[in-house]
Specification:
357 residues, 5-stranded mixed sheet, globular
Length: 357
């Protein structure tokens, strides 16, 4: 009698084999995950570089069209005369409409470049809102405001645009924690990662940070004085962008250090600097006085209280931050750059000889 063939059953994994497979998969994931993360960061860094490149080109196009660089308009009277430092009030300051000025609207320089970033419609609405403020000083409140705080443009001010957002910074979102009046009124405003370079001056007269005694700069070096208020051309900030730069109408001819040797715009991290409101005169500039990539502890209250230490350049890219130079070229600057060299790139007319190499 023939014996019927037996059905063979597939052999199952043993527990040991299963554990070995899981271990191998775990090793592969551990090896691949950093590579995937590095690839994603590389893509984010390229996107950020493209943003800076477009902003840099928009600045050059603006200067070519109007003969001077884009400039912010102060949000309050913040000027002193050149003959002894007399403060100018709202009625006799250069921004007052009675003196031919545009008013203390709080408009940041980012607004000026909007038409060159394919944002003409939004730019026109902002200009209309500022003009309808009839020269009134910047104000923002829950149900109204003037200048850049005008209620009619609140939707524009709140929209977080990709062109001023670094994808590596997760904190770069619209929020209601931005200085000055935005936080007080709990008004949500978009935040920018890209700050115009003020120079390497102090940002607050009482803040004696980053002196030679703390290990920065050459022996005996002192930080340059707060430059925001002076209307004397020789005493203004030595960079390109600050709230009273409108008075000087800087052009490419004023960048005597060379366009390829001068920072125009660099990166900042929103969570580390509560002065990051986009389109706002006090939110779109930073200084090279502090070391590159100086990070305070991640304590919001410390960052809030020590705001004058936070107005430097930094990024979430490993090892440094990106800058667009005045010539439109974008460079990654290593955070280990010698501090005096870094500060030299921040000034437009210091006469320094500096190289990233």
């Amino acid at each position: 009698m023939n014996t019927p063939p037996r059905c063979s059953r597939p052999r199952a994994f043993t527990l040991v084999e299963l554990l070995v497979v899981i271990a191998i998969i775990g090793v592969l994931v551990a090896l691949l995950l950093p590579a995937v993360q590095a690839a994603r960061e590389a893509a984010r860094r390229i996107s950020c570089s493209n943003n800076l490149k477009q902003i840099g080109l928009s600045i050059l196009n603006y200067e070519s069209s109007l003969g001077h660089l884009p400039a912010s308009h102060n949000m309050w009277p913040q000027e002193v005369t050149t003959d002894g430092g007399t403060w100018l009030g709202p009625d006799n300051g250069t921004l007052h409409p009675n003196n031919g000025g545009p008013g203390y609207s709080g408009k940041g320089w980012l607004v000026d470049v909007m038409p060159f970033m394919e944002q003409s419609a939004a730019f026109d609405r902002i200009q209309t809102a500022i003009e309808s403020s009839n020269g009134r000083q910047f104000r923002v409140a829950a149900k109204g405001g003037w200048g850049i705080g005008h209620n009619d443009i609140r939707d524009i001010i709140e929209a977080q645009q990709p062109w001023f957002t670094c994808p590596s910074d997760e904190s770069a979102v619209a929020n209601d924690q931005q200085f000055n009046d935005w936080r007080a009124a709990k008004i949500t405003v978009a935040a920018t990662n890209y700050k115009g370079v003020l120079g390497d001056d102090e940002v607050w007269p009482q803040a004696g940070e980053w002196t030679a005694a703390q290990g920065f700069g050459s022996p005996g070096a002192q930080p340059l004085a707060d430059c925001h208020n002076s209307l004397n051309f020789g005493e203004g900030c030595n960079g390109l962008f600050w709230p009273t730069a409108y008075y000087f109408k800087l052009g490419l001819k004023d960048i005597t250090d060379g366009q390829s040797n001068t920072f125009a715009v660099g990166e900042s991290v929103v969570a580390q600097d509560h002065h990051s409101a986009a389109y706002y005169a006090n939110g779109d500039w930073a200084s090279c006085n502090a070391p590159l990539n100086f990070f305070n502890i991640e304590d919001p209250e410390v960052i809030f209280n020590d705001w004058f230490k936070q107005r430097g350049f930094r990024s979430r890219h490993p090892g440094g931050a990106q800058f667009v130079f005045v010539d439109g070229s974008v460079h990654f600057v290593n955070e280990g750059i010698e501090h005096q060299v870094y500060r030299a790139f921040g000034s437009r007319n210091g006469g320094e000889v500096a190289s990233l190499d």
